[in-house]
């Protein structure tokens, strides 16, 4: 049976990963490391969530929040080359974490006007050593650049603003893979370290304009990826990702002081009630020498706990379809679309978010040389 990297109609950008819990977006894939020879890829994705809810007011009835999750785009790229028969190198650029929330300002919803954004970009350099055609190990360094800002309203009053410094911080990854090339089997296990970020937080509130240090830990995670041929030109694919989001809190000093003065027991701006495990199961098929496709389903369990106002979602189910067209022997283009059913949740202000969804599209151009 032929090796079927062709079926890596591995959709253009992390597709379902963009709907995952915490602030996961790209899924931190290292798939380019396993491409043959020298290889380069560029990809672009666009995600359009529709997450809306309402506040059940005892007198005024249901106060709508509107769609609170703006559309966002993701870009990624990778370069891989063999340094020798046993040693290879990959450089991967992606946007692993992020958040965008906007409650709008023309609603009666209790926190209308509140906004928050988190932006990150990661550059990961990886070396892989092959003991033989089956066993290999790999490891590398990841540089993460990150920044964020938030503006919070309560009953129409802007009571708090915060903007972080832009920071660059380091983490690492290690992993191992087992392959049987004749049947396109590959299993890889990758550990991604946590990354500690030491922000300067510029806060503006009734306490004045103050700056303070704020440490945020982006979570350690483990990715398991498996594929195997199950028939001629047909591939079964499975992946799972665990991320320790319970270690990630955002707790600026003045914000904590304000909430404590109001009698709140939870004074973090952002915290996560549970770690997350996301799954994907799919099948790929090569139709002919030019065209191949894939279909997969994704799942992340809901934790059924109160969500923060800045993350009004809880788990998801998704379906993803992709096609890959071989333009020339070396160059291919792949595209895909994902649809996700986002889990219902109740937010800390009492908002009810139900029957929400998201759609994502992606495009990837790749070339072997």
Distance from N terminus to C terminus (CA atoms, Å) equals 23 Å
Outline: globular
* Number of E strands: 22
Share of residues in strands: over 45%
Instruction: Determine the CATH superfamily.
Output: Outer membrane protein transport protein (OMPP1/FadL/TodX)
Number of domains: 1
The CATH topology corresponds to: Porin
Q: List the secondary-structure elements in sequence, H or E.
A: EEEEEEEEEEEEEEEHEEEEEEE
Mean pLDDT: 92
Profile the largest sheet: 14 strands, antiparallel, barrel
Description of the molecule:
By secondary structure, this protein is an all-beta fold. The protein has a single domain (5-368), classed as Beta Barrel (Porin), CATH 2.40.160.60. Helices cover 2% and strands 59% of the residues. The chain is built from one helix and 22 strands. It has one helix at residues 253-261, and strands at 39-50, 52-57, 61-67, 72-82, 87-94, 98-102, 115-130, 135-154, 157-164, 167-180, 185-192, 195-205, 208-218, 221-231, 234-243, 276-286, 291-300, 316-326, 331-342, 345-346, 352-353, 356-368. The protein has a 14-stranded antiparallel β-barrel with strand order 1-4-5-7-8-10-11-14-15-16-17-18-19-22. The chain has a four-stranded antiparallel sheet with strand order 3-2-21-20, with no helix packed on it. Strand 7 and strand 8 form a beta hairpin. The longest helix has 9 residues, at 253-261. It is globular, with a radius of gyration of 22 Å. Residues 1-13 have low confidence and may be disordered.
